Fold this protein.
Amino acid sequence: MGARTSRSRVAVRGVGLAVAGTAAVTLLGGCLRDVGSGFAGFGWPEGGITDRSERMYDMWIGSVVAALLVGLLVWGLIFWCVVRYRKRGEQLPVQTRFNLPMEVFYTIAPFLAIAVLFYYTVVIQTDVEATSPDPDVTVEVVAFKWNWQFNYRDGLGPDANTTASTVGSSDQIPVLVLPTGQTIRFELTSEDVVHSFWVPELLFKRDVFPGSLRNEFEVTIRVDNEGAYIGRCAELCGTYHSTMNFEVRAVSPDRYQQYLSALESGMAQPEALRSIGEEPFATTTKPFDTRRT
Ligand SMILES: [Cu+2]
């Protein structure tokens, strides 16, 4: 009788711990960033430059903290059992066939943990993937074997018109100039096979499909993040897949407008970049010797 009472007390204490842990993770929301920066983001890339990257970062840190709490509980229980129930003599210990409170606990506790993680995943994913009905800038990204074309558009969807365009070649890395502080819609399409549009600093990667399926996403680059960022193809698309590099150049909205006008007046990419005081060629990567002949 005494043993059973102490067992159920242990189970009650375990459920209490799990609930407290879940509540703590929720309450910790505000200081997650401090926790994360103390541990180098637990491996998450900390340099995200968009409005969406903060919530993804919080999600990652929260999940890792939750996993560590569960881990600590499990490790603690394992070591406690090892010490408490170690072999002390030749007598067979009490044989227990089942422990109902314990079984209820280890059925409910993981479900609670998963429910909390699922809730935050759905909320944050919806938030990160949200698109606005009227973005400030729309860029159509056209991937082809083995380079990129960036079309600045006057509206949304495949029926909109291209007002200016940049295309890369084996001698010149295409530079995608974008304004900071404005919503940017990317519409992705491919001319041949499946590619993948990836700018690591945007913390966004989307496959680029041929045909009518246009993958889309939207970000706002924070105003203090002007600069040059490398972009890559992240889908093995053929022989020269590794040479499909490009560069994102984040500039102020004023200079973006000047750049766009320069392109529209027929200037080539290097001259247009020079006209707004930017480096005329990519600075984060260079064209590869592809020996395509
Ligand atoms: Cu590719």
Q: What stands out?
A: The radius of gyration is 27 Å. The helical segments are 2-27, 32-38, 53-84, 100-129, 253-264, 269-275. The pocket of copper (II) ion is lined by residues 143, 195, 233, 235, 237, 241, 244 (CB under 6 Å). The beta strands are 137-144, 147-153, 162-167, 175-179, 183-190, 195-199, 204-208, 215-220, 227-233, 246-251.
